[in-house]
Amino acid sequence: xxxxxxxxxxxxxxxxxxxxxxxxxxxxxxxxxxxxxxxxxxxxxxxxxxxxxxxxxxxxxxxxxxxxxxxxxxxxxxxxxxxxxxxxxxxxxxxxxxxxxxxxxxxxxxxxxxxxxxxxxxxxxxxxxxxxxxxxxxxxxxxxxxxxxxxxxxxxxxxxxxxxxxxxxxxxxxxxxxxxxxxxxxxxxxxxxxxxxxxxxxxxxxxxxxxxxxxxxxxxxxxxxxxxxxxxxxxxxxxxxxxxxxxxxxxxxxxxxxxxxxxxxxxxxxxxxxxxxxxxxxxxxxxxxxxxxxxxxxxxxxxxxxxxxxxxxxxxxxxxxxxxxxxx
Amino acid sequence: xxxxxxxxxxxxxxxxxxxxxxxxxxxxxxxxxxxxxxxxxxxxxxxxxxxxxxxxxxxxxxxxxxxxxxxxxxxxxxxxxxxxxxxxxxxxxxxxxxxxxxxxxxxxxxxxxxxxxxxxxxxxxxxxxxxxxxxxxxxxxxxxxxxxxxxxxxxxxxxxxxxxxxxxxxxxxxxxxxxxxxxxxxxxxxxxxxxxxxxxxxxxxxxxxxxxxxxxxxxxxxxxxxxxxxxxxxxxxxxxxxxxxxxxxxxxxxxxxxxxxxxxxxxxxxxxxxxxxxxxxxxxxxxxxxxxxxxxxxxxxxxxxxxxxxxxxxxxxxxxxxxxxxxxxxxxxxxxxxxxxxx
Lengths: 328, 343
Known about the structure:
The structure holds 2 protein chains of 2 kinds.
Chain A: E1 20-26, H1 30-41, E2 50-56, H2 63-71, E3 76-79, H3 86-96, E4 101-104, E5 110-111, H4 115-125, E6 131-139, E7 145-148, E8 157-158, H5 162-167, E9 177-180, H6 181-187, H7 198-209, E10 212-223, H8 229-234, H9 238-251, H10 256-283, H11 287-300, H12 304-316
Helix pairs in contact in A: 1-2, 7-9, 9-10, 10-11, 10-12, 11-12
Chain B: E1 27-33, H1 37-48, E2 57-63, H2 71-79, E3 84-87, H3 94-104, E4 109-112, E5 118-119, H4 123-133, E6 137-147, E7 153-156, E8 165-166, H5 170-177, E9 185-188, H6 189-195, H7 207-218, E10 220-232, H8 241-244, H9 247-262, H10 268-291, H11 295-308, H12 312-331
Helix pairs in contact in B: 1-2, 5-7, 5-10, 7-9, 9-10, 10-11, 10-12
């Protein structure tokens, strides 16, 4: 364990250990929380088999009332004494989990029916896996389904070539992932140097040490809305700087002969993602954010295609906005 | 609303009312099949999971004399006596088979669910609501999940409106966007009795497009933004003779022509946009033909697209598609490369 990686201690002997820990970090998302809790409680196997706990990062919108009203005593609630940021709040979730399988389900995301039964089946079938994830549906603020994550593999099973694949770019959302607590105990918690890509770095770290299972059924729901912590950080392009930090950390996990090539792929993908985001900001008239993304794209990869793309974003910020809309 | 009880236009099949005295469930789930028995078990299970019982739902497979497989066996194995089976005495083509489905439906709400499509849990509950609440509604549709041959989801149909509601501009939407796929649509049976069934002049496609626009011209349409219907896209359904001889394009133009003729109130802007939509679809088919190296079909679809619409988006994509085809042909091994023109 390094100074950046919190140690996740084993659960003390004698403490009851359910199979599942569904840990629900929240911050200013109480209006979505009832929906999240319902989705879990619909498939609740009971307190002996599943811990369910909301871990709130000192919100001001009263998730405790929602937890009490919807959870009716079934759902635990912990409130941080002060706001610690979402990566640290994830860390608290890991500390407080007691189950063998940890599911970090953000308080504005969701799961579809049979998520827990299906993922449990994966760990039964392949006990050596460290983690399992399913396909994800991306929803808008109102919960309308808008996209589906790419199909990684046709059949459920241990995913082939996963380390290279996940190292070349973030491609999945946290609610899709279930990790054995023991894995966190061995590898440590989320890296404290990261504020936005801590999940990606963790998935790569796990891929380096354990087989990972893939379930092609889309059973997890990830909500994108402008109030989400990703929504807030996106505006300043801080996210792009954070991806670059993560790429440097991840480089160390890769076999030397492939590390450079994979890091280059990740850098390339990040620069182009920055340009796409900049273009959307420019189109919706959020000019400062558009320019911030153009700069960060070039800082990430100064290739001809990126420079040309960034220049187009800068030009677009000089034109009148085409459509007034929410940030992308 | 519906016109004064006159019979439908002669182009459209007649859907006679259910004889008096016959039991009338709320639902008729009519499942047309033709050589798709491999998928039928999935289709039937998706319905049977939410079966409210025979008093509330008729479930029937109507087979257009499949010759490659045996849907009757699937119906027996999966349906367990709950699902009835009707087999056409001869192959009649998909449009006439749809009309047989409508005739044989006894329920008040008809769901035409192709034997390779499916529904998600909650479809029938959600889609019954609008008809209970508002007697003006002639049809309701939800969003569609597209799936591939193996049943993996690929995308969702676009979100038209957030929130379930009556669509205020249903006719323009149905004509210019084609937002509804067959498994996502539920229609009151008496709407078919009033407006007629599908138009048998359509040979390959677009009969549904014409139907939804026809209904939208006469009745209120309800929109459910939850994607509860699964529509299977099969690559080979985009190839074959209908694509090479341009029948798909003639069908698309026939749809536009038909609803222009039957609805004089249709603004010219709507037909222009409908033509653009049809042409963009032909360019998509051309793209599929490029991938399948079917140069005859490719050229045909390009030609039909430009005949259908010359809007800026169409011309732009036409140019890009031509460039892509040129590159694709140049990359082929010399032996594969045809001499002279690609047609």
